[in-house]
Write a structure and sequence with these properties.
Blueprint (H helix, E strand, L loop, with lengths): L12 E5 L4 E4 L1 H6 L4 E4 L4 H18 L1 E2 L2 E2 L3 H4 L2 H14 L4 H11 L20 H4 L12 H4 L24 E2 H14 L3 E7 L4 E5 L8 E6 L3 H8 L35 H5 L4 E7 L5 E9 L15 E3 L5 E3 L12 H5 L7 E2 L16 E9 L5 E8 L12 H33 L19 H20 L10 H16 L7 H23 L1
Helix pairs in contact: 2-8, 2-9, 12-13, 12-14, 12-15, 13-14, 14-15
Length: 527
């Protein structure tokens, strides 16, 4: 028995309609009703980051105006022509249902969207059944717990989100398995994996997924139709425009030992850079996944490619790298990096936020998806966040507000850095009776004390409230340092504790730390 869970029509993508109702749709329903959808409601942000790239690649073929597709290479040769085409597609307000059906029923070969198709299961490698075998030739799957992010694996796996063990695996519903399939392809680990035998050698290690450890930023409109059209990356990228562009479900299975195909726009850029190969093992009724194979897909060096949805930060060696996800860092601290274009030479904002239609800027927010991980096996926390409509303040549109927002963020970061130092100094003074209160205090970074982390934990939520209070056109030109210093002072006092419980040395330590924070106001007044 083959097939049985067709992602075109099975209800596997959770969305919230503009009416407020929550429903699940397949690919076909999502595109036909995209103008009715307010948001994606995928509970696994790494899967949502991958799904949006898949949907953007599909939108390149489905989004059309006057018979011309958004992924038309001929139109892409002139950026003005492509921008005009995108405006015409947006003006239509929805995807053409006939074009949607044609894409899923005719353009893509039959079976390619079935999660369990025997020949070409969606985004999977059917040859793993015979290639992932043990030394005796028996099947050697990786286990369903290895597929589902958050489940413990192996004998030493920590129990965090459920009591799952490899000796008594629990099947996962097919819809959820599709989410984790996407998350593994984009965010999978490097290092040891299930061995795959293609030649006489059973190679058992691979590279990290193309988005591992990273953050993704998307222009977010009031409806999913607009968000998807804006997610199609501009053709102003480094790509091979001569080679044929195709998504994995549109072309033949790749040769895992052969050279990588050229990175083309937009399909391979978004869906053709995977480093893992997966195969899901279905239950008898094809409604759940009972096992999975997860291994490497290629050992060829990954091509250097600029992802269209990532911020790049300059390293100390002068090169740029994608900003890494940090679960403790709120999205508002990245907003100036999304607004400034030319003023900050150490940051490059995502190309996907460039040249947005001016008429839409007042309503466009930014949706961020992040997954804090190390390079190999450790997964810490995933998250998503959405800004207010801030893209109207991009530097080329409203330079005054862009620089004001950057100034607010800089003041918040300066106060945080000073608070961290002041709290460590205060702890050193209070905890070490031999410390000379009139001399410079040396901080032992191995023993920073509890006050710094406690103070920062209280400071950042307060700083966010102050930031949004200041980040308005009415506050342009106002002094922005004092609100953040006051927030830092309050956080410091809360971390140290009530005054009536402090001895004389703690009181002096508090006084010294507060003076350090007030020093920020003195410094800013002299600038």
């Amino acid at each position: 028995m083959g097939g049985g869970f067709d992602l075109r029509d099975e209800p596997w993508i959770p969305v919230r309609l503009r009416t407020g109702a929550s429903v699940r749709l397949g690919f076909r329903g999502l595109f036909k009703r995209a103008h009715e959808i307010a948001d994606l409601e995928l509970p696994v942000p790494p899967a949502a980051a991958g799904l949006l790239r898949v949907l953007a690649a599909m939108t390149g073929g489905i989004g059309q105006a006057d018979g011309v597709r958004l992924d038309d290479v001929g139109v892409a040769q002139d950026i003005d022509d492509w921008d005009a085409l995108r405006r015409r597609v947006l003006k239509q307000g929805c995807f053409d249902p006939g074009i949607v059906d044609a894409y899923f029923d005719t353009v893509v070969p039959a079976g390619r969207f079935d999660l369990f198709d025997e020949q070409r299961p969606f985004l999977q490698e059917p040859r793993l059944v015979t290639q992932c075998v043990d030394t005796k030739g028996a099947p050697n799957p990786s286990g369903v717990n290895k597929l589902v992010l958050g489940r413990p694996t192996g004998v030493n796996g920590a129990v965090l989100f459920g009591h799952f063990t490899d000796t008594a695996p629990v099947a996962v519903p097919a819809a959820e398995a599709a989410w984790h399939l996407l998350a593994q392809l984009y965010f999978g680990p490097s290092g040891q994996c299930t061995p795959r035998r293609i030649t006489e050698r059973r190679a058992g290690s691979g590279d990290a997924g193309p988005l591992r450890k990273s953050l993704s930023y998307f222009a977010w409109a009031p409806d999913l139709f607009t968000s998807l059209v804006l997610a199609v990356p501009s053709p102003q990228i480094e790509a091979d425009f001569e080679a044929v562009d195709a998504c994995p479900w549109e072309e033949d299975l790749p040769d895992p030992l052969g050279p990588l195909p050229a990175v083309t726009w937009p399909a391979r850029l978004l869906t053709g850079r995977f480093r893992h190969a997966l195969l899901l093992v279905p239950s008898t009724d094809r409604r759940s996944v009972t096992d999975a194979y997860i291994t490497w897909s290629t050992h060829e060096p990954p091509p250097p490619v600029r992802d269209p949805y990532q911020i790049l930060d300059r390293r100390t060696d002068g090169d740029f790298q994608a900003r890494m996800a940090d679960g403790s860092r709120a999205l508002w601290r990245d907003i100036d990096s999304l607004l400034l274009k030319d003023s900050n030479q150490d940051v490059q904002r995502p190309p996907g936020l460039e040249a947005l239609p001016k008429k839409l800027l007042p309503v466009l927010r930014v949706r961020a998806y992040g997954f804090e991980q190390d390079g190999q096996q450790k997964d810490s926390v995933w998250f998503q966040s959405t800004t207010p409509p801030v893209l109207q303040w991009q530097e080329e549109t409203d330079p005054q507000m862009a620089h004001h927002v950057a100034r607010c963020h800089r003041a918040a970061e300066d106060a945080a850095s000073r608070l961290d130092l002041a709290a460590k100094v205060a702890w050193r003074v209070a905890a070490n009776a031999t410390t000379d209160l009139s001399a410079k205090v040396r901080i032992d970074q191995r023993k920073p004390g509890p006050w710094a982390s406690a103070a920062l934990a209280r400071y950042w939520p307060a700083a966010e409230r102050e930031f949004w209070s200041l980040a308005t056109p009415s506050q342009v030109g106002a002094a922005v340092e004092q609100p953040f210093v006051q927030a830092a002072l309050a956080a410091l006092d809360e971390a140290i504790g009530p005054v009536n419980r402090a001895d004389l040395r703690v009181a002096r330590a508090r006084s010294r730390a507060r003076s350090m924070l007030f020093g920020l106001l003195t410094a800013s007044s002299t600038v």
